[in-house]
Design goal:
This protein has 119 residues and is α/β, with parallel strands linked by helices. Helices cover 15% and strands 43% of the residues. The protein has two helices and nine strands. It has helices at 14-27, 75-78, and strands spanning 10-12, 31-39, 43-51, 59-63, 66-70, 81-87, 92-97, 101-104, 111-113. The longest helix has 14 residues, at 14-27. The radius of gyration is 14 Å and the shape is globular.
Length: 119
């Protein structure tokens, strides 16, 4: 819907591919759905869930054994995003390096996106 022809709207690091593939296998899922919703102190939050099947309007990004399903309402907010998975002493989880983010809260759980009207 919002992707450029021949170019995936998001990219996955090897660590993200491995983690998504492991989640899909463990849950018997068809993919890992990523979206956004209103919430948090900065205005928007990423959502992530294993999905039993792709929605007809999802953009499907395949990287090796990992399949990411991008929810329709999230597509314009995620263009150009790199998804990583990091394990650390205090924090472990998916990290979104998103060029469309203009601000985030102190805890990093919510973000503010560039206004699409600004181009």
């Amino acid at each position: 819907m919002f992707a450029s022809p021949g170019q995936a709207p998001v990219s996955l690091t090897p660590a993200a591919i491995a983690q998504i593939a492991a989640l899909m296998e463990r849950e018997g899922a068809a993919g890992f759905r990523i979206g956004v919703k209103k919430g948090g102190c900065a205005g928007m939050e990423y959502t992530m869930e294993v999905a039993a099947e792709a929605d007809p309007m999802d953009i499907v990004v395949e990287a090796g054994p990992a399949k990411v399903l991008i929810a329709p309402l999230a597509q314009m907010f995620l263009l150009g995003t790199e998804i990583d998975y990091e394990e650390g002493l205090l924090e472990t989880g998916f990290k979104f390096r998103n060029p469309n983010v203009v601000d985030s809260c102190g805890c990093g759980e919510s973000v503010k996106f560039r206004d699409p009207a600004e181009g």
